Amino acid sequence: FRLALIQLHVSAVKSDNLQRACGLVREASAKGAKVVALPECFNSPYGTQYFKEYAEKIPGESTQKLSEVAKECSIYLIGGRSIPEEDGGKLYNTCTVFGPDGALLAKHRKVHLFDINVPGKIQFKESETLSPGNSFSMFDTPYCKVGLGICYDMRFAEMAQIYGQKGCQLLIYPGAFNMTTGPAHWELLQRGRAIDNQVYVAAVSPARDEKASYVAWGHSTVVNPWGEVIAKAGAEETVVYTDIDLKKLAEIRQQIPILSQKRCDLYGVEMKK
Length: 273
Prior knowledge:
Keywords: Hydrolase. The chain is of the alpha/beta class. It has helices spanning 14-30, 48-54, 61-73, 157-165, 181-197, 246-255, 258-261, and strands at 2-7, 35-37, 76-78, 83-87, 90-98, 104-109, 115-118, 122-125, 137-140, 145-148, 168-174, 200-204, 221-223, 229-232, 238-243.
């Protein structure tokens, strides 16, 4: 099946972001994409100072638009970090997934908050305004089961391993790595998660805006279970297409059967919630 990653240029005007995102979703569908993913924080600038201002409840304006365009195009639509979600007085970094009938299939709240300090380069603390999610998020398609993470979640190998144990063959990470962590770790982490679990990994970023307060690395990427980069964007707004070949995935698992060779008598990773 064909996967499309929409590397969107994000502005400060929510309505413009929504309109352009939906237009690119329609374009991707017209080119045969059956699963389409938007980047993290596609409808607002990225930054703790923006989260409260742009926050919505779910369902709300942004998720309603995503539901409508998913149904119109009859696709599976991963809504990036569609919105800072407001619920019960708390804010969450939340990704929604809609099916071909427009129904909400999954809602992933970012589990690991981006609190980092690289001296002289970048300091960021999502926990100043956001609360963490506490659950794994998977959804079924006629093609395969898909596991979801958001950006910083990709650094935690245990999360991806759980998804692999639960039968996911594609992991999708809407993300917005920056100009420090992006060139160092963006592709490396994707390749690591793909090889560790013999799955396809797709990470979709906003396009780079050098004038933004937080500059995203871009380079939306798809990696196959062999660890090969099979599709990759540059920094500009674009749509990345690739065909997910589940026969190739099965062949790789047969050739190097690590999933059946794990020493569960010695070690293990388990899902607690």
